[in-house]
């Protein structure tokens, strides 16, 4: 979510919408009532490359065995069908024991292109390629000499989308939606390779999550706030993405996610819950910054067993608080100021110790893993 919000707000803005009500969104949760999820095939990994207002991202969340975390992202956006822009952004978070500030780079890309089936993304000094067997991505970037990326991400569990197509649709006429929000995931992968920094290479051998997202409308019209969860453990990976629409669409909550292990989706769907169980607040901007969280996954296995999984833990000190508007050009700030209540901030955390407790039927297990989570606030709900 991190850089998607930045790019979207930097590229498309506008005033608040009328109150259409909850009937003007057809959330993917409705699809999930009959089809909890579908496994991804190659065509689901194609870039849409829309010719209208949109922001499309491929985001790789990398969890190194060394404790380093990195977020590598392609952001491909279209402004009202007039101008396309693309960026490669990279964030590296160091283990707390190293007591080092995070590494951050964001670079505008030139000469954007895709391969014939639109599964590969190319730009000058950047390539994100899907292997012929559809199981491996390679991410290579030399666009910024302070952070040279050479990473391979290989799927170890099936990818999924919630419902039939992973998409929520916006508009008063369900047959002619004027906007959309889509998420597709590879939730569990291995990582090989390195990121070269001015201090030398960082070995990123470990685990990863891939999220391919497409937002086909103005960002603050679709999502007023977001919660994102990426847990990578020895046996299980647990992911969750939740957004709440602005009041114009009834402050509707849409939550998608799943639990997987190597070779298997244990459960996926839209019946999960993301709670901020303790709020400390942010005195600088009045947003309800969380201090503790509870994430719960609910569903059934393929053989019909009920499953619940829970992460319930304090967040520790935040990794970063991103003032989105501080990082966009002055003319964009002027435009976005017209969008009533728009003051986007992103809070990022990776608590030192979090457990995933999972119950499948009568079988109960728990394991510790690496959690990366975000809370994003864009407009009041």
Describe this structure in words.
The chain is mainly beta. It has one domain (2-377): AttH-like fold. Helices cover 7% and strands 52% of the residues. It has four helices and 27 strands. Strands 1, 3, 4, 5, 6, 7, 8, 9, 10, 11, 13, 14, 15 and 16 form a 14-stranded antiparallel sheet that branches. The chain starts with a helix and ends with a strand. 49% of the residues are buried. Mean pLDDT is 90; it is low at 1-14 and 329-340. It is found in: Cytoplasm. Residues 55-215 form the Svf1-like N-terminal domain. This is Survival factor 1.
Q: Can you describe this structure in just a few lines?
A:
The protein is 7% helix and 52% strand. By secondary structure, the protein is mainly beta.
Task: List the main descriptive attributes of the protein structure presented here.
14-stranded antiparallel beta sheet; disordered N terminus; eleven-stranded antiparallel beta sheet; mainly beta; AttH-like fold; 381 residues; 7% helix
Helix residue percentage? under 10%
* Helical segment count: 4
Give Rg in angstroms.
19 Å
Q: Architecture, according to CATH?
A: Beta Barrel
Contiguous uncertain segments of 5+ residues: 1-14, 329-340
Give the domain tally. Answer: 1
Class based on secondary structure composition and strand pairing: mainly beta
Major β-sheet profile: 14 strands, antiparallel
For the termini, the CA-CA separation is 18 Å
Q: Count every beta strand, where a strand is a DSSP E run of 2 or more residues.
A: 27
The CATH homologous superfamily corresponds to AttH-like domain
Looking at CATH, which topology would you report?
A: AttH-like fold
Mean pLDDT: 90
**CATH class descriptor name:** Mainly Beta
Q: Which descriptor suits the 3D outline?
A: globular
Determine the strand fraction and express it as a percent band: over 45%
Protein name: Survival factor 1
Organism: Glarea lozoyensis (strain ATCC 20868 / MF5171)
Family: Belongs to the SVF1 family.
Subcellular location: Cytoplasm
